[in-house]
Amino acid sequence: MPVTALLSAKSSGVTTSALALTLASKRPSLLAECDPAGGTIRAGFLQSQAGAGYGLYHLAAAERTSPEALANAFANHLWPLDEAGHRKLLPGLTDPAQAAALGRTWPALSEVLRVLAEEAGHDIFVDAGRIAVEAGHLHPSLTPAPVIHQADLVLLVVRGTEQSLTLARHLIDPLRTELAEHGTGGDALGLLLIEDGPYRAHQVADALKAPVLAALPHDPGTGHYLTSGGRPPRGYGRNPLLRHARTATEQLEAAASRRSIQQQYASRPANARMAGVLERLVQVRGSERG
Prior knowledge:
Blueprint: E1 3-8, H1 14-24, E2 29-33, H2 59-63, H3 67-76, E3 79-80, E4 87-90, H4 105-118, E5 123-130, E6 133-134, E7 137-138, H5 145-149, E8 153-159, H6 162-169, H7 172-182, E9 189-195, H8 201-208, E10 212-217, H9 220-228, H10 240-267, H11 270-289
Parallel strand pairs: 1-5, 1-8, 2-4, 2-5, 8-9, 9-10
Antiparallel strand pairs: 3-4, 6-7
């Protein structure tokens, strides 16, 4: 299953979108709240049920001990988002000043998330917060850069408004270059469109020169619930945001699968690729004659 990192140029609904995708997934899922500016789900959607004793900050000390200690701490600091425990949260920082302690933790955490996705079959969503770029590269302390680098997909969350597209337009090339040089490839970059504003998906893709990999409706009622918690809105389980979020998780899985196949094909020697093409042609010709 893919590791998908969500980020934005400015507040565009990253946390709400990541939470909606996590809750809507058909598979076991995890949301890692990795925004160095601090997490909001603990005080919002969870209404302070998860205390400060849980969360991302506590992984730093464990990482300094051993990989096994980090894995145990990670498992012990997850908080259930549903009664069955199929959807979990790694709560984020309670104070932005805590981010300074995570410099060594980000690469190790990215490995834990990778194992959980590949070996345990979880959908992993990372709330990477607002992107910060310095000298054309991801800021080393204001972004969880190693986690973003190792993601299968990196989604820039945008709205279909002129303001949102203007802010995002200047980040596309630095992000693509960053992922090409340090990440899983420039083609990991895509867009998650919040359908708020006059611009449709094809217009957004043309404007930003990047594919819209999924879209979510602008749903203020459900968005408020996912942001602030409290009583779910009427018809919550059937509302458009969660229905579209479930479709979006399937679209993201398909996009990640296509990337994986392309990478495997590209890594094969030219002669092996040619042999594969010839083998398929022979099979087709044989079936036509039969």
